[in-house]
Description:
Elements: H1 2-10, H2 14-17, H3 34-39, E1 47-50, H4 55-60, E2 75-77, H5 94-113, E3 118-121, H6 125-133, H7 137-164, E4 171-173, H8 190-193, E5 197-199, H9 217-224, H10 231-234, E6 248-256, E7 259-266, E8 272-278, E9 292-298, E10 303-307, E11 316-322, E12 327-333
Parallel strand pairs: 1-2, 1-3
Antiparallel strand pairs: 4-5, 6-7, 7-10, 8-9, 8-11, 11-12
Helix pairs in contact: 5-7, 6-7
Amino acid sequence: SAICYTSLLTSTWVNKHNVTGNENLDPNYNYWTLFRIAKEQSKDVKTGLYSSWIDNRTVLLGEGKPETNNLKIDFVKDGYDIDKSGFPKKEKNLQIFDIDELVSKEAAKGIREDAPDLSWVYLWYTDDAGHRAGNSAFFDEYVMKADKQVGRIWDAVKYREENFDEEWMIIVTTDHGRTENGRGHGGQSLRERTIWISTNKKVNEYFNINELAITDIAPSISKFLNFEVPKEVLWEQDGKSFYGEADIYNIRTEPYDNFVYLGWDTFNENVPVTIYLSADNKFKKGENDKWIKVTTVKANQKSYKLDLNDYPESKFYKFVLETPNNHMNRWLLK
């Protein structure tokens, strides 16, 4: 689960963010979370976190750590997972459902009264119900109860919009799918790798093709909130925004001898696509990569043949395709 949360927060996959499980967590904070991006804006951005699991804040977001520039979350309601007196263990782990009830109420209250610009609400028990009962009436019952918890938060959002002339984006998602019987997850079956995303905002074409991923959420929020993301951070993001305009998708690389064939698909065939290459990965260690501009072509070309003899010799390359409305990146190991 923490793997997927971090992919959502950083818009990167595990090969970058380095969170490989739920224990012994060691995030690579060089890949900024959405909350770090928010706090690095020139304008004041207030943030909120409503969660049972305290590690969401202290480890995955890295609050207060030098590596995250001493990130501080403004409004926090969390740590209920370690409150054994307030939430003693119940049959079927229903104390977790009780925590979710409180978290959803605290989130709704916080949105109504504090109105953070960016909030993360974490609800837990549907996952536990799936592990416990699999595909079942019990699982369905607690999915519907979670829907009511989300409804509380949605009501708070509507209250803000109706009474304070504000525009809000809400995104509801899950961190992963489940095995065929609904009890497990973590494998590579289609159902386990499939998530769903719901939002109240108008979405672009990219949202409706079979490419959508959990890494697309942070870029979509950034675009909605008009966040400025430093280029070196942005170009490491693996996701694409499903909000606003999108030009290209589905980047591909095919090495052949010392050539690389780059490919992509388009929503807008008339925009320019600028291709960049880096022959190292210093960013992973907190340093700056040397990006080389290769060329600019029209999007409708949909491919480009690149001769690596013209560039620094390496066993590892990074490519970025940049258009006016989005970018894509890809790693290549020779």
